[in-house]
Amino acid sequence: MTPEFGRLLYLLAATRKARQIVEFGTSFGISTIHLAAALRDNGGGKLITTEYEASKAERARKNLDAAGLLDLVEIRVGNALETLRTGIDDPIDLVLLDGPKDLYLPLLRLLESRLAPGALIAADNAKDIEGPMAGYLAYVREPRNGYLSVHLPVDHGNELSLRLTRG
Ligand SMILES: C[S@@+](CC[C@H](N)C(=O)[O-])C[C@H]1O[C@@H](n2cnc3c(N)ncnc32)[C@H](O)[C@@H]1O
C-alpha cells in the first residue's frame, strides 16, 4: 500500500465522518491504521477488519497497539466470507476491499444490506477490467444496482463506489 493510498483512505473516512468501517484484508494493519486514525479524529467508532492468516493478524494487532488505535478495531481471523457474515450491527459507512479480487463481489453482496445510504466502497487493485475484477466492476458500474462508481489512478488502481440506495 502506498502512502498516497493511505492518505486517501484517511480522507474518505474523515469526509464521510465514518463511525463504522469494514475492511477485507488486514495483512499487517497499515491500511487499518489509516482508517482507524480517521475514526479517532471523527470522535470514535468501530473498524471491523478481517485477515485469513493468524500470524498476520497478530502483527496487525501489535502495530495497532503501538499506534494507540487498537481500542477502535476488532480483528476477525478467518475467511472473510464467514467472519463478516454476522456481528455487524450498525450501518456501515465505509468498506475497504483489499484481498483476493474474486471475493470482492461476493463480499459486497454479503455486506450490501448493511450499507448506510451514502456509504463508500473502495476496492484496491481495480485496474484490470478483465479477469477476476470484471464481475465486480460491471456490478458497481451498473446504475440499476444502486451505486455511483469511479476509477481512481491511485496505488494499484482503485474503484471508489458510492452507495446510493439501500437496495
Ligand atoms: C493486499 S493484503 C492487505 C493489505 C492491507 N489492506 C494494507 O493495505 O495494509 C491482502 C490480505 O488479504 C488476506 N486474505 C486473503 N484471503 C482472505 C480471505 N478469504 N479472508 C480474509 N483475508 C484474506 C491475505 O492473507 C492478505 O494478508
Task: Describe the model.
With 167 residues, this protein is of the alpha/beta class. 35% of the residues lie in helices and 26% in strands. Helix 1 runs parallel beside helix 2. It is globular and about 40 Å long. The protein binds S-adenosylmethionine. Residues 1, 25, 27, 30-31, 50-53, 56, 79-80, 98-100, 103 line the site of S-adenosylmethionine. S-adenosylmethionine binds next to helix 2 and strand 2.
**Can you summarize the main beta sheet?**
7 strands, mixed
Please mark out the parts with pLDDT under 50 across 5 or more consecutive residues, or reply none: none
Helix and strand string, N-terminal first? HEHEHEHEHEHEE
> What is the molecular shape?
globular
Bound molecules: S-adenosylmethionine
Number of strands: 7
Mean pLDDT over all positions? 95
What is the name of the CATH superfamily? Vaccinia Virus protein VP39
CATH topology: Rossmann fold
Beta content comes to 25-35%
Q: What class do helices, strands and sheet pairing give?
A: alpha/beta
- Number of structurally distinct domains: 1
User: Which second-level CATH architecture applies?
Assistant: 3-Layer(aba) Sandwich
Radius of gyration: 14 Å
What is the terminal-to-terminal distance? 31 Å
Q: What's the helical proportion of residues?
A: 25-40%
Q: What is the C-level CATH assignment?
A: Alpha Beta
Number of helices: 6
How are the strands of the biggest sheet laid out side by side?
A: 3-2-1-4-5-7-6
